[in-house]
Amino acid sequence: MADGDFGSQKDCFSAKMALALVLISLLIFLKQPIQELSQHSVWAILTVVVVFEFSIGATLSKGFNRGLGTLSAGGLALAMAELSQLAGEWEEIVIIISIFVIGFFATYAKLYPTLKPYEYGFRVFLLTYCFITVSGYRTGEFIHTAVTRFLLIALGAGVSLVVNICIYPIWAGEDLHNLVAKNFMNVATSLEGCVKGYLNCVEYERVPSKILNYQASDDPVYSGYRSAVESTSQEEALMGFAIWEPPHGPYKSLNYPWKNYAKVNGALRHCAFMVMALHGCILSEIQAPPERRQVFRQELQRVGAEGARVLRELGSKVKKMEKLGHVDILYEIHDAAEELQNKIDRKSYLLVNAESWEIGNRPHTVAEPQDLINFDNEEHNVLAHKSLSQPVLDLRSVNISSSWDVPKTIVGVNPAVAPSPASKDFLNKQISWNARGSFIADPIPQLEESKTYENASALSLATFTSLLIEFVARLQNVVDAFEELSEKANFKEPDELLAAA
Amino acid sequence: MADGDFGSQKDCFSAKMALALVLISLLIFLKQPIQELSQHSVWAILTVVVVFEFSIGATLSKGFNRGLGTLSAGGLALAMAELSQLAGEWEEIVIIISIFVIGFFATYAKLYPTLKPYEYGFRVFLLTYCFITVSGYRTGEFIHTAVTRFLLIALGAGVSLVVNICIYPIWAGEDLHNLVAKNFMNVATSLEGCVKGYLNCVEYERVPSKILNYQASDDPVYSGYRSAVESTSQEEALMGFAIWEPPHGPYKSLNYPWKNYAKVNGALRHCAFMVMALHGCILSEIQAPPERRQVFRQELQRVGAEGARVLRELGSKVKKMEKLGHVDILYEIHDAAEELQNKIDRKSYLLVNAESWEIGNRPHTVAEPQDLINFDNEEHNVLAHKSLSQPVLDLRSVNISSSWDVPKTIVGVNPAVAPSPASKDFLNKQISWNARGSFIADPIPQLEESKTYENASALSLATFTSLLIEFVARLQNVVDAFEELSEKANFKEPDELLAAA
User: In B65-144, which ranges are E strands?
Assistant: First the structure.
């Protein structure tokens, strides 16, 4: 049923609505003998038009609002009618004043944020109160007006409910359930797209202004996470309706934990923000050099693929209403993240620009002769560092073990710079250099803006990997939220499935 | 007027609504002679209750929907009445069928996304059509029913409009305008909070689950950007109403560019996502060591402060409807970002963990004797690198020029490792070491997860700065959107202000 096929849902709903209207019209035609009732037929039609909403929850919620508003306003109007009659010749004025006072407070309450779901109830309340008071005053038949009106509204609401619930019901809860599952898939697609795009050095020649202004766009990577991020209001509306729905289909328990669906969605959104930030690295003008990205290709790809897999699996588990089971769903991705992290640890020199490093010694270490080595020319080191990373970069792969087979025996061949105990300190100072120049006056030249951003390019790769790792960290939270949901909603055990197979 | 003071707006609106209800009731009382009109008084009251919306734009839009729906449905119902009379004894069936067909198509159209703003119009259309057909069939007075109904609806709508527009009008456009200005201030507050929090090493002992699930929370840093991000639906609603409003107050031109307000808001949101990512660095379990953050304190602070200043200035310019003028509003922040970037260039070794670097030589360079230096013990280098960063870290400041005053004459004191021409290559290889170990089989030990995240800590600082710089880059887009708005909306020149002062 309602397999996310919105088109057929729409067809169905339209037919149901038309059917309800036909039914209420027929009832009015048939009831012609009861002339009086049918004189007020407008109330029944009005109720059907207004109360008949897309989902069962919305229909019930509106019906409840309408019923409560009508009843309470009716009671109040009758009481006020008695009171106003006591006022004798001031009756009209008392009625007018009561309308003002009640209009004021009902409107004020309606605007109160926590009473938002009952907004419609307040409208009905106001309408009923004014109508009964005014028409009752005119005809003197307060009670009669109120009762007729209430009966016809009940008739309209009854027809709406029966048609809406009995024929192909559309449940807000089911839509919420599907929305959450769909969001998982969307974020997974975005994540894959981001990692793939980043490794393939996809660049936007001109970032679409729709993305820059956060409007809807066709870009699949963008629309994937955007839909998850933007579903807040839809989710809130669906949740507000779902709690009105009686237990049905797979949502058997009373007090079904719809809030936990929203919580899972929120946790997923928290992850989606990281995917958004990853996409930001692709959108950015500041781009890491392609060859450096390739160094981490395998690891990035693995984390991306594993991340998408975890999201898809969670999504399909939400969809199938299945518990996680005993396998740690995050094991693989944590492993992949560790691998990426280790690679970064080993190659983090690729993530920074060594051109302008300033590293110095503490004065008190200037004691041993080796410490006195200082180069006033930074160029040396820059070049040195640059060529350090060269070999790795040029090979464009980590599978370069063979090229590295420098025989172990070579170690320590040159005694002038022999390693072993003393070399520790020695090396220490050897690599250091004094960037004193940078500290004299205001040494920073006004670089062009573009230069600044260019320099940031290598760091951009660091940002991408670090955001990806943060994404992995946030997955834990999604899994926690999912586990809470699967407990509270009493999802089935995956083992049962296996046993059944 | 309506200086963002929502409380007083609410008071006022409630009083207006009550007044409109009183007026319509009085009209019905007074019109008692015209018995027939007042028999249908419910339509006038209903119209007031339904059409009287918070803002002028919403009232006009609803009034228009109601008018159009009533008129078209009335016309259609009359035409159908004529037709059905031709059907003779099949009249009833023709009417029922027409109700079904019209009910189906009107409902279907209503669900169409692009017709969403006219949803209310379709409802009214349905209601009117059914009511006129049914009650007309009963009484045979189709035209009379339709005309009476239309007159009373016009009366109700007239009272609503006059009261709503003439007394303390609340404009959706003005609310949209204020919303955009407020969002600027909120994002600025968040940005400042993020940078401050990051430098003060604010850590969440336990990240509030509200943040993890992206629910509203009191955290000022979080709620600042969240309100800007979450204002999408509010903004869309306000924009939908604002375009209905006639020129008024400072929004003088016809076709006032309300869409550009939304565009500015979208561009701001695109920036706010970066602030969100910055906040993510604070929320993260992966935290950069405090002492390293201090190294960049001055620069980060400056960028943060300048960023907040730019946002606040843009916000106040939106508020005051003032053009940018000839001063480059981004000059200072670009300068600050460059300074930060330069600092990073010089100190990027602080952003990476040198513990596990693997840097090797290309095989073909293994020709000169110096190249043959290889250490099989990585420890050396780890320690070496570690102590490199030590001095800078411990001084916790960049103003450490005096401590660095190692006399220049010391350079080259030790001839064994003399610099000058040869030393270039020499150094190059000296620093290198062979991490061959890592390439044999699967060399990466299964580190604990926590260790992995710990290693990422230094990179987290790189991420923070890099996101901050990306934030600065995105500001350009906000400024562009603002300039487009200020042109199209004909904001006043700031010079005029100066001249007037």
Answer: none
B413 and A354: CB-CB below 8 Å?
A: no
Q: Residue A73: enclosing H or E segment and its boundaries?
A: helix A56-86
d(CA B424, CA A424): 20
- What's the CA dihedral at A182, A183, A184, A187 to 10 degrees? 130
pTM above 0.80, yes or no: no
Q: What is the DSSP secondary-structure string of B418-471? A: --TTTHHHHHHHHH-B--GGGGSSS------HHHHHHHTHHHHHHHHHHHHHHH
Q: Which residue of A has its CA nearest to B366?
A: A406
In angstroms, what separates the C-alpha of B404 from chain A's closest C-alpha? 7
Please indicate whether residue B325 or residue A244 has the higher confidence score (pLDDT).
A244
Q: For A34-48, B217-231, B297-311, B378-392, which range has the lowest pLDDT when averaged over its residues?
A: B378-392
Residue B181: CB atoms within 10 Å:
22
Q: Is B270 on the interface with A (CB under 8 A)?
A: yes
Structure confidence at residue A368 (pLDDT): 35
Give how far A14 is from chain B: nearest CA, Å.
5
The string of DSSP codes covering A125-185 is: HHHHHHHHHHHHHHHS-HHHHHHHHHHHHHHHHHHHHHHHHHSS---HHHHHHHHHHHHHH
- Reply yes or no on whether the pLDDT at A356 is more than 90: no
Distance in Å, alpha carbon of A202 to nearest chain B alpha carbon: 18
Reading the block at residue B138, the tokens are 């009963």
Q: Quick: pLDDT tens for A388-412.
A: 333 333 323 333 333 333 333 333 3
Measured distance CA(A454)–CA(B341) in Å, rounded: 10
> Which positions 44-63 of B are in contact with A (Cβ < 8 Å)?
45-46, 49-50, 54
- For residue A141, with 0-12 CB atoms within 10 Å meaning exposed, 13-18 middle and 19 or more buried, which class applies? middle
CA distance A421 to B311: 57
What are the chain B neighbours of A138 within 8 Å (beta carbons)? 28-29, 32, 38, 41
Question: Do residues A465 and A338 make contact, with C-beta atoms less than 8 angstroms apart?
Answer: no
C-alpha to C-alpha distances, A416 to A370, B227, B417, nearest whole angstrom: 13, 65, 8
What's the ipTM?
A: 0.74
Task: Give the three-state DSSP class for B330.
Answer: coil
User: Across the interface, do A456 and B411 touch by the CB < 8 Å criterion?
Assistant: no
Please give the pLDDT value at position A358: 57
Q: How far apart are CA A22 and CA A242, in angstroms?
A: 28
Is the distance from CB of A481 to CB of A317 less than 8 angstroms?
Answer: no
Mean pLDDT of A35-44: 70
B173 with B256: CB under 8 angstroms?
yes
